[in-house]
Amino acid sequence: MRKIIISFVAVAVGVGLGVVIGWYVWPVTYTEAQPNRMGASWKDEAIWMAAQAFAYDHDLEAAQARLRPLGSDDLGTLVLDRATRAIEQNLSPTQIADLARLAAALGARSPHTDVYLTP
Question: Per-residue pLDDT for 21 more than 80?
Answer without folding.
Answer: yes
